[in-house]
Structure formats: structure tokens, C-alpha cells
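Take a protein:
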Amino acid sequence: MTPHGEIKTPAFVTVGTKGTVKALTPEHVATLGAQVTLANTYHLYLQPGDELVRDAGGLHKFMNWQGPLMTDSGGFQVFSLGTAYGKGIGKILKTYDPQLLLAESNDPDKPKLASIDNDGVSFKSHIDGSMHYITPEKSMEIQHNLGADIIFAFDECTSPLDSNYYQREALGRTHRWAERSLAYHKGKENSERQALFGIVQGGRSEDLRKESADFLAKMDFDGYGIGGSFEKADMTTAILWSNEILPESKPRHLLGIGEPEDLFMGVENGVDLFDCVAPTRMARNGGLYTETGKINITNAEFVHDFNPIDSSCDCYTCTHYTRSYISHLFKAKEMLAATLCSIHNLRFIISLVDKMREAIHHDTFFELKEKFLKTYNKKSALAAPQ
């Protein structure tokens, strides 16, 4: 339970990075069945500024979102603007050639926008080039000003390509920052209405993952995030290593992951919450989920296809529009294309997680998983760029 309502788990958390789920109004998002939305601390700090949001009455009022709200810590930007900048590394590592990634990182036209020391992170704004310094205390202050129901401790996300030596060094930093985040948070009245989650890191190492889970489990956090950038094969083991130690009585959130296969895997292994930009990012590029797999609506085969995106989907897009019409919208570069596709993709994922929750209640989760994945993987189709 949060000050803005109950979150029934497992739940998919819609991502509204800058205080908006791209191409959708908050009313759209609510009607899709979304329980909770997540916004980005780093981006809102830079624009419009956390103090402005505070003066507007907090992020709920500022963006007109009535339900539970989460903010991340800005820690992922330590990764995406620092060690991962210019390397093509995201939450899931898609390139397996470390030499290629190293070559990309040495591109003089791609300087890092973040640098780390033991006290915090120096950021160069991607908006105007101004310099900013974020510490655990500063991250907490920003998130207190934003006023989300659930906030996250400041951490350092590492790359799967980082050495074990650096992973251990970064983990020590993450643990110290967790202590500082918790101490600052507990010293403010916000701790009475904002839940604080610690974030488990540790890369690909079983020892480090378990060490991190054990360290954080002994602290007075309200819940836990499982962070990191993964190779696909590493994700399950990283979750298992973490969740076998984290307290079952507190929620576990898998940060930045949300593909259908990953949702089943996470729920099966004790994850309660997920967030991911994939549904709306794919949608803006024509990528759509269907019960038989992903399609790209911009492909020529859909120009004369007068069927809905997915005949089994109950979303507004599928009950009112055809694949042919949406294909036309993309070719005509109409903004409505992104809206209609985002409505469908979010409804598809939210509905899927809702079905998982219902299946757990009826003890039919594994039957649902087998049935869904058998059909979902039946058809090979091109997905939009991630």
C-alpha cells in the first residue's frame, strides 16, 4: 500500500521518464490498467528542475497522475553516460565482442558525460553542457522534492564487460552510497510517506551478487531493486542469486526489464515489479507485440491488412483500427501512429502481467507460461529497433 493506492503484484510499471509516458496522456495510461508509473530523477532534475516540481505540489500533481508513482535514483545515468557511453551497451548487452566495444569507447567524438569518484558522480548535462555533481544525499533530496511514493537509493550500475576488480570496487561504492541514502532519507520527514528501495548490484559474479543482497537485506529498506546491465543468459542467475537472500516479505523490483519472456522468468523467480521503456519505444518505431510474436507495422505486408494488430487484444487500438490504417499513419508520419501503437503495446504487457497475477492466485502460472510462450514464439517476425 502506498499513499496513492495499493499496488497488486506482480505489476508492470509504465515508464514516464520526464513526467510523461511518451505519446499518451495520464488518462490513457490509467485506462490501460497501469497501476504505477516511474519517472527519471536525472532528467527531471535537469528539466524542469526538482524544486519547480516541488513548488507545483509534487510530481503527482504536476503530471496529473493519480496512482502510485516511483522515481529512480539517477544511478543508471552513471552507467549510460559514463562507462557505457558510446559503446552501444544498454540493459541487455547485444554485442558480444569486447574488442569492438572497446574500440567504440575510444572514439574521440563520444566523450563520457559522467565521471565517478567515491563521493558521487559528475554529470555533464546533455541539454546545455552544464556540470552537475550528484551525491547520494543530493539524489535523495531531488527525489524528496519530486515526492514519489517509492524512491531508490543512489547506486552505480556496471557493465557486463567490466573486470571483476572494477565490479568489486563499484559494489563497495554502491553499498556505501546505500548507507548514505538511507541515513539521509530516515533523517527527513519524507521517510514517513516515501518508501526507499536499495539496489542490488554485483554484475555477473555470484559472489558479488550474493554479497550485495546480504548487505542490503540487513538494512532497513522498504524494498529492493535488482539492477545491472546483463547479457541475456546472465539475467536469470543474477535474479536467483539475489532473491534467495532478499527478504520475501519485501517487494523486489527488476529494473529496466520488460520483454514478455523476461516477465515470466522474473515472476517465476520471485520478482514483484518490472519497469521498461520497450513497449513505448518499440511502438514509436512501429514495433508491436502480438500473441504470435513481434511485428513491425511499417513492413510492406501490412499495407493491405485490414485486421486488428492482435485479434485477442481488448485495447482501444485493436477494437477500432486496422493494421493497414496504422501502417498508413507511419508512412504519412502522423503523430497518431505513436499514440495508437503505444496504447496497444502497454495494454498487451499490462494485461499479460495481470494474467500472471490471476494465474498465481489459481495456481496455474506454469500452464499460462507454457501456453503463452508456445504461441508467442510460434511466428518469427521482425521487431522494431529497441
